[in-house]
């Protein structure tokens, strides 16, 4: 690979707030990794933080979590994922010509739409990361709005991109099924090695008053119906009725009404004494949960990659997920956990891991090995830069793409 040292890459995303979940946070790791390999990359985004705003300087290039970022003010009222920002429009119009390539993260959002339009006007190649928004489940959410937006804007935005960045083979298939002709690359997201906490299992039990004999089951994600925490709670209610002992830790935040529904479900199923609600966690608290639990469960309807699944894997946690989590194939192929569908299979899967510490240990080690080998930011960054160079230098991208997809399929 001929590394273009003067290459400047702009990453555009509506928000990098922790409240927006793993996909928004992954862009920080991605940019940090490619910068470590000599690429001049930075991010432009808004100060969105869900219902609130990030407390950051606006309109200046600052270093945020070791990454250069331009924060622009979003529209005063939160508009869910669309996140309008007039200031972002002006900034892109004035500055996009300073970059050799634009990497856009998200669909059906103002920032991604605006970046695509200005990149085309200025003849700057751009990459689009779809973040799982073309899965069948995602497309039926607000279906009419997405159909209109697709016909007016998004389909042209995708077909005019230099390449579509998918994070799993299933996501690439969703792009093709959507009728997009743009070539796709399949590169997973990365995870960093966590700080090792040797006393995590003891500390977590002490902190939440969990008896030593009860296996800890961890749910760590947004409390949103897409993630199906209700299915996990109902499944554990069935196990509780059968006399199975465990302790559930629910880590994450969500809309007040939905969180109240989940709390009521826990009460109705008699799981109050066996459940700890810990809210949103990050940093050491997050590492503590991942290293202190015995089983990680995410029964989501749809996840384009599931960065938290990779984080659980690097922490040596055996994993239970559903086919809607698009790295389910990796987990199953590595025997790093169980892929289940529906309540009955979830109940059986949890019971199987609770009853077998040996199986948990083996799957946990397999998970750690998988994450270390496949979800390394350093390796992912090297491959991503190769694609950047190919795009900018107008090399035979389709030939390179076919070789890459064959490698991943094999």
| Molecular shape | globular
Uncertain segments of ≥5 residues (pLDDT<50)?
398-410
Strands of the largest sheet, in order across it?
5-6-2-1-7-8-9-10
Distance between the termini: 23 Å
Radius of gyration: 21 Å
In short:
With 410 residues, this protein is of the alpha/beta class. It folds into 2 domains: 8-190 and 376-409, Rossmann fold, CATH 3.40.50.2000; 200-374, 3-Layer(aba) Sandwich (Rossmann fold).
Structure description:
The structure is a single chain. The protein is of the alpha/beta class. The protein contains 16 helices and 16 strands. Strands 5-6-2-1-7-8-9-10 form an 8-stranded mixed beta sheet. It is globular. The two termini are 23 Å apart. The model is unreliable at 398-410 (pLDDT under 50).
């Amino acid at each position: 690979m001929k590394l273009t040292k003067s290459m400047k890459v702009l990453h555009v995303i509506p928000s990098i707030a922790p409240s927006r979940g793993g996909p928004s946070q992954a862009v920080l790791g991605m940019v940090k990794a490619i910068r470590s390999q000599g690429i001049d990359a930075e991010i432009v985004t808004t100060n969105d933080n869900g219902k609130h705003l990030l407390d950051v300087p606006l309109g200046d290039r600052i270093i945020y979590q070791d990454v250069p970022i331009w924060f622009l003010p979003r529209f005063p009222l939160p508009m869910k994922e669309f996140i309008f920002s007039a200031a972002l429009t002006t900034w892109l119009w004035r500055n996009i010509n300073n970059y050799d390539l634009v990497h856009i993260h998200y669909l059906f959002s103002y920032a991604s739409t605006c970046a695509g339009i200005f990149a085309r006007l200025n003849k700057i190649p751009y990459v689009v990361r779809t973040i799982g928004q073309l899965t069948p489940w995602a497309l039926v959410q607000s279906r009419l709005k997405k159909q209109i937006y697709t016909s007016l804007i998004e389909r042209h935005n995708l077909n005019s991109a230099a390449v579509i960045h998918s994070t799993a083979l299933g996501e690439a298939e969703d792009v093709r099924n959507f009728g997009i002709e743009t070539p796709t690359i399949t590169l997973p997201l990365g995870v960093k090695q966590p700080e090792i906490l040797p006393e995590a299992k003891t500390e977590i039990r002490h902190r939440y008053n969990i008896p030593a004999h009860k296996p800890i089951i961890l749910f760590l994600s947004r409390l949103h119906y897409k993630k199906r925490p209700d299915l996990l709670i109902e499944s554990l209610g069935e196990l509780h009725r059968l006399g199975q002992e465990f302790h559930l830790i629910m880590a994450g935040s969500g809309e007040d009404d939905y969180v109240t529904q989940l709390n009521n479900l826990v009460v109705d199923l008699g799981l109050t004494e066996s459940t700890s609600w810990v809210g949103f966690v990050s940093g050491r608290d997050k590492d503590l949960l991942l290293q202190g639990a015995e089983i990680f469960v995410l029964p989501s309807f749809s996840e384009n990659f599931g960065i938290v699944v990779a984080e659980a894997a690097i922490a040596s946690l055996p994993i239970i997920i559903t086919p809607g989590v698009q790295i389910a194939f990796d987990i199953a192929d590595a025997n790093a956990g169980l892929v289940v569908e529906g309540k009955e299979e979830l109940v059986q899967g949890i019971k199987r891991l609770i009853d077998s510490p040996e199986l948990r240990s083996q799957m946990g080690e397999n998970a750690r090995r998988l994450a270390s080998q496949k979800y390394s930011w350093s390796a992912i960054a090297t491959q991503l830069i190769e694609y950047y160079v190919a795009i900018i230098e107008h090399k035979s991208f389709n030939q390179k793409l076919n070789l890459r997809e064959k490698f991943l399929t094999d």
